[in-house]
Amino acid sequence: MSKRALALVLLPPAKRFHASGHAITHPITQILNFENSLYDELILCIFAYLSWSDLCTTQATSRNWARLAADNELWRKQYLSVYGRTRLRGAKGFIARSDGREVRPLPGRAKADQHKDWKWMFRISSNWRKAEVALPRSAPERTHILLAGALIISATSRPSNHPTVTITREPNEHHAIPIPYHDDGSHMPSITALALDQSPPVSGDLSVACFLQTGEISITEFKHTAPSNAIQKYTYQPTQRISRSQSVIHAAYYYPLLVTLSSDFSLSIYDISSGVIRHTQTLSSFTSYPPASLVLSCLSPMVFKLVVAYSVPVYPRHWSIGATELIIASSVDSSTSTLSGSTLFSSASFREDYKYPVSSTISVISSRTIRAFDLPTGWVDDTSLRAMREQWGRKLSSIADAQTDGKWVILAPGQNYSFDNDESHMNAHANLPASMLGSSSSSSASARLHSPNILQLYRLILPIHSSSISASPPKLTFVRTLHGQTSPILSLALADGRCVSLGRNGSIWVWDLEGGTGAEVTPADESLVENMGRVLTTMGTVSFDERRIVSAHAGKVVVRRFDI
């Protein structure tokens, strides 16, 4: 049945405004466009399908779009999609912040993620990936550098009658903290290492341990917001019995545990729980050498894990990398511990020198050691022989620096790597079997393998101890080499899967260890290249956190910020 056709009549006229005694006025009609025709919720729903680059482009369209494109929820999804984590990379320990970006007073049941500026976090992470930084004016040279929120804690290694630790709050606020020491008049002391307390801060207090060449230790506490009101909390002067603790080159601090590593590779443990610095144990190693690095973490109350990465000698006169995990606790169960009241602690890399009552002090209860290159005993099959050839090709004539974050280990070769004119090296290789040397035994291949510009990356796997199942052995597996640096490496910094390398020519590179990619933050300094002979004798240091890189090189400290 067909529909009835409409009658051909005119439509009624439109309504008119009636105004008695006044002129007839027409209503003002608003031109509809994309902005005023849709609600903000609909526009945000459309923006959710855009990429981060398109969101940045839409902000230049209008004020309304700029306001909507900066929505925090949009950038939260972008950050999680691109970087796959809910925080910035590079954080070490618990650091109180005064700028309010990370720590804010939260209302009743609000989540912490709701108070994060995701767009700002995305911008910082993007600057890290593209190596874009802001460069302020340089400052005097500092050798030891620690980063604590907005503060830069630094100290020079030059001998001085008045050793001081400088606390800098950007841009130009400096506070000098004098370090007390016992003046015997024999020589001027120098600061050899600094360590920042990684434990959760109490009432916003930061604690820094300073180590002098004489073996003395000074721990200073100060407020993050008022570093000028610093107080000397603890001091320690070694006795003749443990004089080998002098010349501390590395230290790790997690209250109440303090661990130091000396230049002769003696590992000392200190307990601060009783209100004084008390030396409890010293471990020695005759197969491990600097350069090295320490990573200290807390597994449970009064149970700590220390990971040490160090250099290992390899036949005939080369070097490789090794790592040791030490479990440190204040009390030990005799049924599960490797220690007892009548025995001394020993492991593959460290051995205890003095015996202390384990039940009443902090000490090492177990350890595990793994090395990247080890010659197996007895007979080996073809598969093991091929693996040995690969490991043999990665040995180095010297090591400039070695760093670990507990998951990765990165190795920087030293500068003396060429063996083209070294007869002793060729004679040493001549005594080796041909099956061991393989095709990589030529001098040209050795020069390429031992290039000081190429970093070696290893993955460190330390399975968790378990009494129910047999624990898997630790592994230190070679992953890849990192290419890009144009000069020999001077210093490394490693944290949270990110590495920063400082070259002797002043160039700085940032490496993403998961992806194996790198970007140049700072090119080579032409003045340093011209005077390379002078720069080679200069010690350099680099450190970083989530938002900046601080480097000390060639007599100046430079801060490179990524929150721009």
From TrEMBL:
Transmembrane segments: none annotated. This is F-box domain-containing protein. Residues 38-78 form the F-box domain. It comes from the Eukaryota. It holds the Pfam family F-box-like. InterPro entries: F-box-like_dom_sf, F-box_dom, WD40/YVTN_repeat-like_dom_sf, WD40_repeat_dom_sf, WD40_rpt.
